[in-house]
């Protein structure tokens, strides 16, 4: 009884699993420390087996040196794709950071080792809410689907033109900044008007010392109006997920 091993197929699956595990290490929601590294490794192998019919058809087995170079290239590609998704999802975290900054919560920032983010209350709350909605709406499945379609855009061992991902990354950073302002913009405007009103009140009646009430008033306004952002959070997560998939399949 003999067994034949297709080393070309095995090498293609190994390279695909390397790209996927590099992606899962850095891309949300899988980058959270709530996912042990062993779970990420097993998930990457399972996904690599799922895309084996796609990656093995056009793969040509190189020599040992060429295989090592392709291995390094797949790590770079996986990290690059994961970074693109992380940049897009950072819009929600950046919006929370803006709310903390203008609402007076910035002094209470701390590092969250579970989520691997550094921020105050609304920064972490926005990020946790986005991840919960991502799993509740099965949006993570679309991200995995975009990752599997990346093997069609960037075949195993086919190389990559770094001009295309750099353009996508530049657009993603600009879109992230714009999205964060759109998410937190209305609340920031209200807080700015509150500061302007307190300034005018201080000029009219200096004895009142209106700025002494500034912090509790701004905190009250922030806690009251932040609920409007949470009402729009499902639509925000849906839009961010769509942008992440476009970034994944847009790299050539």
Automatic annotation (TrEMBL):
Key words of the record: Cell membrane, Cell projection, Cilium, Flagellum, Membrane, Transmembrane, Transmembrane helix
A cellular component annotation (GO) from this entry: plasma membrane
GO biological process per UniProt: protein targeting
Primary subcellular site in the record, as a coarse category: membrane
Residues passing through the membrane, by range: 12-30, 42-61, 67-92, 125-143, 183-201, 208-233
Keyword Flavoprotein: no
InterPro entries in the record: T3SS_IM_R (IPR002010)
Family note: Belongs to the FliR/MopE/SpaR family.
Stated name of the protein: Flagellar biosynthetic protein FliR
Source taxonomy: Bacteria, Bacillati, Actinomycetota, Actinomycetes, Micrococcales
């Amino acid at each position: 009884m003999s067994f034949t091993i297709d080393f070309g197929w095995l090498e293609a699956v190994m390279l695909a699993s390397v790209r996927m595990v590099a992606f899962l290490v850095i891309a949300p929601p899988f980058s959270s420390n709530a996912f042990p590294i062993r779970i990420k490794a097993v998930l990457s192998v399972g996904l690599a087996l799922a895309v084996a019919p796609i990656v093995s058809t056009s793969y040509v087995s190189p020599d040992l040196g060429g295989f090592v170079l392709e291995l390094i290239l797949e790590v770079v590609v996986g990290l690059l794709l994961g970074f693109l998704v992380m940049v897009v999802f950072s819009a929600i975290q950046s919006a929370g950071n803006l709310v903390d900054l203008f609402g007076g919560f910035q002094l209470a920032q701390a590092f969250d080792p579970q989520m691997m983010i550094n921020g105050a209350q609304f920064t972490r709350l926005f990020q946790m809410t986005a991840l919960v909605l991502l799993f509740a709406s099965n949006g993570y499945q679309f991200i995995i689907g975009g990752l599997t379609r990346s093997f069609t855009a960037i075949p195993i061992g086919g190389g990559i033109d770094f001009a295309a991902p750099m353009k996508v990354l530049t657009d993603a950073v600009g879109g992230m900044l714009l999205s964060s302002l759109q998410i937190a913009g209305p609340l920031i405007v209200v807080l700015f008007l509150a500061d302007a009103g307190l300034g005018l009140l201080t000029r009219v009646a200096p004895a009142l010392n209106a700025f002494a009430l500034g912090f509790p008033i701004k905190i009250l306004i922030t806690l009251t109006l932040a609920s409007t952002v949470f009402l729009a959070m499902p639509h925000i997560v849906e839009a961010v997920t769509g942008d992440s998939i476009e970034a994944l399949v847009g790299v050539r």
